[in-house]
Design a protein that fits this description.
The complex is a heterodimer.
Chain A lengths: L1 H18 L4 H26 L6 H23 L1 H4 L1 H6 L5 H28 L11 H26 L3 H14 L12 H8 L2 H15 L5 H25 L3 H6 L1
Helix pairs in contact in A: 1-6, 2-3, 3-6, 3-7, 3-8, 3-10, 6-7, 7-10, 7-11
Chain B lengths: L3 E14 L7 H7 L8 E14 L3 E5 L6 H8 L7 E6 L3 E4 L12 H12 L3 H15 L14 H13 L5 E5 L7 H17 L2 E5 L3 H7 L2 E6 L2 E6 L1 H12 L7
Parallel strand pairs in B: 3-7, 3-8, 5-6, 6-7
Antiparallel strand pairs in B: 1-2, 1-4, 8-9
Classes of the chains: A mainly alpha, B alpha/beta.
Chain lengths: ~250, ~250
């Protein structure tokens, strides 16, 4: 067990160093994407969304940061086995290490982005709320969703299908418009709102916005129910991964 | 406790030779209707039986494409066998493709910690042994340099030094592991001799008969995925040379 976690730490650390180019300036490049998205969406939509959504700047940056984590980390995890094919096919070690190391490196970047996001929110004049202290719990839920539910499945499919990264790229691009990242749910017609509410990323974003902007917590029972659902889905996802584990090297070799 | 570290019976590994586009999602959907229309099955291993006792060193010989590396990969649990059964009692250390344990964009020290954990050492053990590893490979002045900045020879020194300080129970090895300079190669094979004396179980795949004869007590020969011969190194080598029309330089 000790060796497993040591390997996980080392691999996650190395993945993060490679992603962020081993220095703070590398991390600045990572911040550029959400910043540019914010500038574009804010510039385009503030006139339309602003009157409907008080504090639209804060609303937008929260949506972008959370969706960015989902999109970037799932895309990175999806290629984790193919990217490390040589390691996978030469060293006997648990295959989930590759998946979780890639996921944890994405999570580490996200945590730094969230810190920068709060600095930006304060700059935008968003008033401090005591519910900001609930954000770590929301981030935990988000981590279980991305690392537990999506990552094992995507890693298997990314190994099995050489073009799955393109398919996932299309799905997450579509997903950005099916998630209330830059628009409030209220502008969607009521019959379609419930469908969007089923989107787990929309759930995370909504919880985060209510805690940061409105000063409302998610509610203990609601939080625990969602955590239980995500945990159950994670168990199923991991079981699927374990079923394919003996064949992963064959997938990446072909 | 069983006297066998590795037991394999009727081991087989099948691949499907594919076109470049075969592993795409649309192609997989097509296969639901027309199974494997453009894939040819090929057996890299077939009907291979192998039993390696604890402390034994077995050599695996054969021409290119015989299935030597595939056999090692299946025994290491890296590839799932297509048929047959296998049992391994002990922790496998793989000395195949050692260079793949490196992230070239990071420094030598960062890679030592990474490789150390991949090879089976905890971070605490790597921290304790790092000075010894650096001294063994004699690369102290490059400890904080980027790995890519080292010459190929020094890169192999770093990798082999780390690998040799890891705990080894059952060793599966491809002789290409020591494509490095003469100094590190000599230290590597001296360490192999120590491991032999300590009773480490070794399976070594090689084309070099002198190596096989020096380090192995028994040899198996593969050809086109099948076990064609087994025996003492000298007799197996002679039979191999005769079968392939090679002048083995026999006395």
């Amino acid at each position: 067990m000790r060796l497993y976690f040591d390997r996980l730490f080392q691999m996650a650390r190395c993945e993060w160093l490679l992603r962020e180019q081993s220095n703070l300036f590398g991390f600045m490049w990572t911040l550029l994407q959400p910043l540019l998205l914010f500038i574009v969406f804010y510039g385009l939509f503030t006139k339309w969304m602003g009157p409907k959504t008080p504090n639209y700047g804060a609303f937008l940056v929260i949506g972008i940061v959370h969706y960015n984590f989902f999109q970037n980390t799932t895309s990175y995890v999806l290629t984790s086995l193919r990217r490390r094919a040589a390691l996978l096919t030469n060293f006997p070690m648990p295959r989930d290490l590759f998946v979780f190391a890639a996921g944890l490196s994405g999570l580490a970047s996200h945590l730094l982005e969230v810190l920068v996001m709060f600095a930006f929110l304060i700059f935008l004049g968003t008033p401090f709320r005591s519910t900001w202290f609930l954000i770590p719990l929301i981030l935990l839920l988000e981590a279980v969703l991305v690392l537990g539910v999506f990552s094992p499945l995507l890693a298997v499919w990314g190994a099995q299908f050489s073009d799955f990264d393109r398919i996932w790229g299309l799905l997450t691009t579509m997903g950005m418009f099916l998630t209330p990242v830059f628009y409030p749910l209220e502008i969607i017609e009521p019959s379609k709102r419930e469908l969007i509410r089923l989107n787990p990323v929309a759930v995370i974003i909504g919880m985060s916005r209510r805690a940061i902007i409105d000063g409302q917590g998610p509610g203990v029972l609601r939080y625990l129910a969602i955590l239980a659902i995500f945990a159950a889905l994670s168990a199923a996802s991991y079981a699927y991964f374990k079923r394919h584990e003996p064949h992963l090297a064959d997938y990446v070799l072909t | 406790m069983s006297e066998y570290a590795i037991e394999a019976s009727n081991l087989g590994k099948r691949y499907y030779l594919q076109t470049r586009s075969s592993r795409t999602f649309p192609r997989r959907v097509l296969y639901w209707f027309w199974p494997r229309v453009d894939e040819r099955p090929i057996w890299a291993l077939r009907h291979v039986d192998l039993a390696v006792k604890r402390g034994e060193a077995v050599g695996v010989i054969g021409p290119n494409g015989a299935g030597k590396t595939t056999l090692l990969q299946v025994l290491a649990g890296l590839l799932a066998p297509s048929e047959g059964k296998m049992r391994v009692r002990g922790r496998i250390s793989s000395f195949m493709g050692l260079a793949s344990a490196v992230y070239p964009e990071l420094t030598v020290e960062e890679n030592l910690f990474l490789m150390g954990t991949i090879f089976g050492m905890t971070r605490a053990v790597v921290k304790k042994k790092i000075a010894e590893i650096v001294e063994f490979g004699d690369f102290g002045k490059y400890r904080h340099a980027l790995f890519t900045q080292l010459s190929a020879g020094y890169q192999m020194r770093v990798i082999v030094s780390a690998a040799l300080h890891a705990p080894i129970d059952i060793l599966l090895m491809d002789e290409m592991v020591t494509a490095g300079d003469a100094i590190i190669s000599e230290r590597f094979w001296a360490k192999m001799l120590d491991l032999r004396k300590q009773g480490t179980t070794i399976v070594l795949a090689s084309h070099a008969m002198p190596l096989i004869e020096a380090y192995c007590s028994r040899v198996i020969e593969l050809n086109r995925g099948r076990l064609v011969n087994a025996g003492k190194p000298a007799t197996a080598a002679r039979a191999y040379y005769e079968r392939h029309g090679v002048d083995g330089g026999a006395d």
